[in-house]
Amino acid sequence: MDGWLEIGKIVAPQGMKGELRVYSDTDFPERFEKPGKRWLLRENATELQEVELVKGRFLEGKNLYVIQLAGVNYRDEAEDLRGCKLVVPESDRPELGEDEYHLMDLLGVSVFMQDDGELIGTVVDLINAGNDLLEVRLKREGLEERQEGKNSKTQKHKNVLIPFVKEIVPVVDLESGRIEITPPIGLLEIN
User: Fold this and answer.
1) What would the pLDDT profile of 165-181 be if each residue is shown by its tens digit?
2) One CATH from 3.30.429.10, 2.50.20.10, 2.60.40.2550, 2.40.30.60 for 4-92
3) Rounded to 5 degrees, what angle do the CA atoms 34, 36, 42 make?
């Protein structure tokens, strides 16, 4: 999928007239509300299929969008698209303001404690749960385990969720691949 950004996944038909329910992977509602070209990636496929978004709206209370694609007029046609991913070209990124980030750019970035510079781990996922959460794989070194009668050093990994808010994540420097955090006491332990 080099060169493409996933913006959502079709999860179900909506009604009888070919509308589709989409779970969003983007913070830009215009991806589902503004008509225009989008591309479908079907499950177990490698080729993209160009489609035309006719209309879309946010479904309050469900955290989903309902969209209509050109040529999809009946529920059974919509059902055939269940599980498809919606994508756009990477070049179609909206411009961002100061202190705004494309969440996908945060994947793989190292996370450090701001006060002492200790490496905490790496961003492995992003979760939208009311506000964005960084899923960080903690780096723990030096745990001893016996394997086949020999002592060997291994790394144990645990993931934690860190709210992506300015108070907890005051520094995001994508150019140097560094995020600095100031978590409240216990946040890294309770996850």
Assistant:
1) 999 999 999 889 999 99
2) 2.40.30.60
3) 110
